[in-house]
Queue: 2 jobs
Job 1
Amino acid sequence: MSRHLLLLLALLAVSTEATFPATSAIQERADRFLALANAGYKGLVKVNSEAQWMAVTDVKPEHDAAAATAGKAAAAFNGNPALINEAKELLTHKSELNELTLRQLDQLLRNAAEGPMTNPELVAARVEAETKQASTLNGFEFKLDGKPITVNEIDNKLDHSTDLEERRRVWEASKESGPALKDGLVKLRDLRNGVAKELGHKDYFALQVAGYGMSTDEMVKLHDGFLQELRPLYLQLHTWTKHKLAEKFKQPVPKRIPAHWINNRWSQEWSGLVEAANIDDRFKDRTPEWIIKTAEQFYTGLGFKPLPASFWTKSDLYPLKPGDPRKKNTHASCWHVDLETDIRSLMSVESNSRWFYTSHHELGHGYYDMSYTRPEVPALLRTGANPSFHEGMGELISLASSQVPYLQSRGVLPPGFKADATAFLLNDALSQSLPFMFWGSGTMTHWEADVYAKNLPPEQWNARWWQYVRDLQGVEPPTARGEEFCDPATKTHINDTPAYYYSYAIATVLKFQLHDHIARNLLKQPPQACNYADNKEVGVFLKKIMEKGATEDWRKVLKEATGEDLSTRAMMEYFKPLMAWLEKENKGRQIGWD
Ligand SMILES: [Zn+2]
């Protein structure tokens, strides 16, 4: 087509648009409907969040009961048949509605699909099964040699024990919850697929990936692409690690790494192998208050507003004092309670590097919330551009807060600190990035896609799980794991955040991509050693992404911000110096496990 003709068509398009009334009758009807739907949604988010907040900051049966009631009220609204039918009806007039409207209607229907009250019996059965599964999961008592052992004790032993026989027994004990959870999970698979089908999704995995505007096959393919690109680096890390561990445990070097040699119960991160990167003692003289204030200062230095005053009065930031009868959840989180200015965080900040990075991460969620809380973003779209963006932003700031020049600028490390750059990179790769990708994009994503989208028969669940662990992670169980076990069910997310884990892997890819752009193009510093502190240009860049919320397609948001599509290029380049070092270390060793 000639450029002339294109121009003519473009002009025609503009003039036809101009002859239509500014808003169609359908658009007006949608506007009225969405005004009501957004107001109801926002009100129920607030009531529900307040109740859930009480339940996690003061664990008591009566708070659990109130949270369950509030959860049901929110679900009854979100899944209301009148809302579903009107949204569906409006979506039959797509061409007469603007993009912001379409995005709200899609979001509303995805929310509804979690509990569509067009089929109340099915929804009730699911709620009951979810509650039962959660109580089996949370109440499970692990035993070692017949004696009760807590999850913290299990993790502690795997962090420190050098006795392989003991490690095997501890690892096996950690898998005991699987059989107790299997029947519930089989039932939940069918109920979750059932509710997803109610609103026209093929299965529950398809419903979850719809949040990305993708199909199950497209999502699995995306992750296979990541793994293909990262594999050469992973094989080098795997080889280095198995030699290191064989030396530690005085064993011959295995082909695949035995699962009980690794600290993490699922081999999802390989930490504790690089002593030179441990800077915990640098935080000994810092108070937890200093840690959180420093994290806030990271954002205000970039040009963001201080946290709302209510953050400091309503959050629950520190560990309980000894003897306090209150029980609180110890998992860090950040809450947008009313989808307006009530932002809170739940943490138990102590003086160490982990809480320093975690505080920066959690406030990232808070600043994301603050950025899209503006009249242009309707309540239904006050969320990340896709389900990975919130986590990716938190992870990005966590990565920024672990950069040596930043730590020096905050006085954590002395100005003349000579960092062992390779040790820091190696630790980062092992404990945050590479094994995590082969677990998240690999085992978790593939197994759940098989279970939900391909209806994998339960008598093949454990075999399929270990096939992925062996083939993709290069890890093997210490002894045979038959179908009398259900090892995937020992992972919390498999039970309570199903068909979602690929989001964490995408967040990992995303953080390196954003970081690479910031370091090279805005800071003009090397991505492996840079400092975001007080750079207003970085603040403008981040704000531009965050203030959109979910009002635009995430692919467009990413491309406009970085000029790139989602890709592992930046992650590979970040670890390029490490790759060169590993190739030298591994010279003469057999790479891989085939
Ligand atoms: Zn997070």
Job 2
Amino acid sequence: MISKKTLKLSVKSLKDFAKKQLPDEHLIELDARDECPIEIVRHMCSPDHLGIQLLFVPEEYGGFGGGAFDVYCVCEEMARIDLGVATSVLATFLGSDPITVGATPEQKKLWLSRIAEEGILFAYGATEPDAGSDLGALQSTAERVIKDDRVVGYKINGSKQWISNGGVADAYTVLASTPAGPSWFIVEKGAPGFSHDEPEDKHGIRTSNTAALSFSDVYVDADRLIGGVEGQGLIQAQAVFGYTRLMVAAFGLGAGWAALDRAIPYSTKRIQAGSPLSEKQGYTHKLIVPHVARLEAGRACIEETAERIDAGEGSLNTEGAIAKYMATEAGNFAADASIQALGGYGYTHEYMVEKIRRDVRITTIYEGTSEIMEMTISRDRWQLHLKTRGDHYHEQARQLEALDARHKDVGAGVAALALHALAEAMERARAARLTRHQHILLRLGEWTAYAESAGCLARRAAMAAEGRLNEKANMRFDPPALAALSRIFAREAALKVATEGLRWVIGAGGVSETGITSLEAALGLPAIHRAQTGLMADMDQVCDVLYSRVEKHVAVPA
Ligand SMILES: Cc1cc2nc3c(=O)[nH]c(=O)nc-3n(C[C@H](O)[C@H](O)[C@H](O)COP(=O)(O)OP(=O)(O)OC[C@H]3O[C@@H](n4cnc5c(N)ncnc54)[C@H](O)[C@@H]3O)c2cc1C
């Protein structure tokens, strides 16, 4: 982990670099030309220029050894600048992840040092034309080359699809099936038999190079098999999901905020019907405030998960999936609302929000789609529900009730209602075997993400009130504003879990006509309805903070 001072300096250098090299006008041109600014990406990853890659490389290989929290902070900042360029930088870290978790000491020394010292760019080649979400359907092969009874190398055949940096990387980590199962290999550019296609003509992140790769009898020495043992590929990929999904979560968060930070100042200047849009509640309470609450719920998940990863709790794949799901979905909605907030101007290129909207769309697709996140979350938490005989989320709720007793105003009590409702919805699903419907399984994943995020945000607001937030934490909102955001989000989460839980348990035939009233009560719907009291006042309060209307809640720039 790096010090707060080093992190601050790195973020400042990144901002200064972007101001000079990637002003809006240039980004708009690059987007229109569908061009990856490869020299700028190389400068970002070069030790002689910005050297942003040093943050991610462990100290023993010449980097700064940034932890998950540091990586989140930098990824959010990169996404605020440009998600395409951020993706190009991310690709090197995704590409080097199998090395970081699974390589031999010699391989780590060679490749991680080259990233740190030479700034070489990597690409991460997992996806194939017929193997996307289901990587088990992988068709690329790595055939052993044997000499004197020894495996001296491998011949790789197959193709990869949608690979970021595919046409510009210096080295590629490539997943291919060996006789003992999927394994990662390192292939260098220019290897005989290796080629890449022209860049894809994409909807968004047009400043990122995405290309298909092709391997025809590409020979690599045995020391290019990451870890030196065949069949470890999917385990190595799994081992970093919590971490890599946090990076994409931070992308969703950064892009969502980048859009809102254009909509908010715009609305103070745009006069309609005699006053600025920012003074119209029907505008702010629809297009701005709810998105701020959802983004900050995503942030709470990211920060809590990053802290836990840095504290050595493992890769936290489910928590990473929740953070990615919440922050990227929120980023998408926020960017979409920002176009609406700018009206006709928002629909043009010049104002950037339509570019951000196209760019952020990728975050719910790559590193695992939102539907795969729902499935990942649901499967894991369903097991916890079964193992604890239905008590897991009631217990989580009780912990939040205890927090509510100490901090009345951070929304913990309402977040507890969301968790109790989730426990009840899961229990009804178990009793009526509703998870035989895949849709119910995935909806449970969605409700879990909302309910757990409400808990995260309440805890974050309480920690802020106690002055115990991580020293590197985002301080955009002061404790009273965070508490108001938490109350807003907790109400939304509780209402969502209970009303949608009711809808789908009934819809899937999980309750008889006569049992509906008792199900409504079990889900806590009356209490959740009563908990909506004060919602308008909280939204007014957040609005005042966003528009710096009250001194004691002045928003501090991130
Ligand atoms: C711009 C871009 C950059 C990328 N960069 C990289 C990269 O650098 N390296 C890399 O390896 N890959 C990369 N990818 C690939 C990306 O990770 C995949 O596109 C993603 O995992 C989804 O796979 P797919 O496109 O094959 O979609 P599919 O898996 O076919 O999914 C299509 C739809 O079906 C849904 N779906 C899939 N399975 C299920 C299921 N079991 N149940 C219910 N719904 C399901 C999905 O959620 C999605 O909505 C990139 C993709 C893009 C577009």
